[in-house]
Amino acid sequence: MPIYHKLGKIPRKRHTQFEKPDGSLYYEQLFGTIGFDGMSSLLYHIHRPTQIKSIGEPLDLTPKIAVAKNILSRKLIGFDVQPKDDFLDAREPLLVNSDVHVGLAAPKKSMTGYFYKNSDADEMLFIHRGTGTLKTFLGDIPFEYGDYLIIPRGMIYQIEFDTEDNRILYVESFHPIYTPKRYRNWFGQLLEHSPYCERDYKLPQNLKAHDEKGEFVMKIKKQGMLHSLVYATHPFDVVGWDGYNYPYGFSIHNFEPITGRVHQPPPVHQTFETSAFVVCSFCPRLYDYHPKAIPAPYNHSNIDSDEVLYYVDGDFMSRTGIGPGYISLHPAGIPHGPHPGTYEASIGKKGTEELAVMIDTFKPLQVTENALKIDDGEYYKSWVE
Ligand SMILES: [Fe+2]
């Protein structure tokens, strides 16, 4: 996250004695990425963050692949993913490769009995339904419908829901998730042509340090396994921190669409980037205003990237038979385009209310067993007239 942020109390100078009220010392931790080269924060703990008491049996969460080499366009009925109580149990990986796992979850209960950390992947949670609070050891981020939550790898968190009706699109990215480089200046500030700016971010707030000893279960995802470690001190014992490595939120409703006289290509919708995939936001916007404009997209051959669209709300103008929570997969290797009738029907329309999240991956995606269970199986034929 290329903005400096700080919460709580920190010593005037880094790596110096920082005394508790009783004269003993707080424990400093450098929480960094990409060796010592990436973004980092300096944290001050009440207790040493290294006190492991015991470890349980790991659980293998490796996605089960049904179609390793896919050529079919697919439509997944996302809301058919069944709600489950636990946040991690509820996650169903659907489309995966060695760079990214894309899945859906409908968790009912808040995470209270344990803490969670993904040590392999940055996580992006897109909140389709539900409100609550992302609680981390660097502070809290309240969330609501339309929020992206970007959680850098290693972040210890819990998620608290206000009700049982929650729907989340999640991404585990094995590469850091950044804002698009072309929207940042040499110093990292978002430029004037960026579709959003720093004011739109939801930064962590309300840092609360828990000075507690006991048994604290931390579930750590690493190399596809979920390890269960018991720590002797409360993981949220940070009294203060500062730096650049922390979770943040951004609402899709704050994405300001870029429009033109003729059809604008998908990169104008880009919201986040990694070295292996991009995330785009398709938001309500005015249509192209050339007198002869065709607002629906042209057919396109994304010959070397797989396109995943998650439909959130509104009518999706280039598709028929699509509802909220659906996922379409248009794989590399074959062209795709508007459904019959939608190309012509878009002419003369002034705007769209569509809301969707797109994930384009540079490597092909594999289709999991979970995905096949909610695959309509007919979608690839839906362009035949
Ligand atoms: Fe497309």
TrEMBL record:
Residues 106-250 form the Homogentisate 1,2-dioxygenase N-terminal domain. Residues 276-384 form the Homogentisate 1,2-dioxygenase C-terminal domain. Pfam families: HgmA_C (PF04209), HgmA_N (PF20510). Keywords: Dioxygenase, Iron, Metal-binding, Oxidoreductase. Coiled coil: none annotated. Gene3D superfamilies: Jelly Rolls. InterPro entries: HgmA_C (IPR046451), HgmA_N (IPR046452), Homogentis_dOase (IPR005708), RmlC-like_jellyroll (IPR014710), RmlC_Cupin_sf (IPR011051). Its cofactor is Fe cation. PANTHER family: HOMOGENTISATE 1,2-DIOXYGENASE. Belongs to the homogentisate dioxygenase family. This is Homogentisate 1,2-dioxygenase. The lineage of its organism: Bacteria, Pseudomonadati, Bacteroidota, Flavobacteriia, Flavobacteriales.
